[in-house]
Write a structure and sequence with these properties.
binds zinc ion, 6 helices, mainly alpha
């Protein structure tokens, strides 16, 4: 897999064919996908208004990668703060990371939305910042949704914003089957 910065550079390269730039955006989402690949892709494509015919608005791809990169910088700042803290802890003789910090090893996939068409609609960086704060303050996701702050009633994806409190490890095969036929339309940017 290519790196995020290199792929983001290809998305912004107006000298490239629009199709290549779209595929570079896909590489970026493979690197950083807070809602999971499909829901993050859906959010960016709809939010940036990427048209079916890419040449109608090539700048839309730049808007999409800008939003993703902004959120990734929030994630990376958290990662760097944590790495510095762990170095101090190890120097003090604490070798093992706390269980409460496991989410930090998920490469940014912190607000998984099993139904790719139901995800938070705010700017991605805003949601990522809020979810990180909720993890860091130890919010109980069965009481308060980390992404939107509403109170879910069951151990299921949040009815308000679609984020699954159980994270990407939760198996929701029914949702995957129900939404898979819609994915093709999203990929071709014919769904609105
Ligand atoms: Zn929610």
């Amino acid at each position: 897999m290519s790196s995020f910065p290199a792929s983001a550079g290809r998305v912004r390269d107006s000298g490239r064919a629009s199709r290549d730039r779209l595929l570079a955006l896909r590489e970026c989402v493979l690197c950083f996908q807070p809602y999971g690949f499909r829901a993050t892709w859906h959010h960016l494509i709809v939010g940036a208004g990427v048209p079916r015919n890419l040449d109608d608005d090539p700048r839309s791809l730049v808007r999409a990668v800008d939003e993703l990169e902004e959120a990734r910088l929030v994630w990376r700042a958290q990662s760097e703060d944590y790495a510095a803290r762990r170095r101090r802890e190890k120097a003090d003789g604490r070798r093992d990371a706390s269980r409460a910090d496991h989410w930090r090893s998920w490469a940014g996939l912190i607000a998984y939305c099993p139904d790719f068409e139901k995800h938070p609609t705010e700017r991605l960086a805003v949601v990522v910042r809020r979810v990180i704060a909720a993890y860091e303050s130890g919010v109980d996701p069965l009481v308060t949704c980390r992404a939107c702050g509403s109170s879910p009633t069951t151990d299921a994806p949040c009815p308000s914003c679609g984020v699954d409190p159980a994270g990407p490890a939760a198996s929701r095969p029914g949702i995957r089957v129900r939404t898979s036929y819609r994915w093709r339309a999203v990929w071709q940017r014919t769904a609105r």
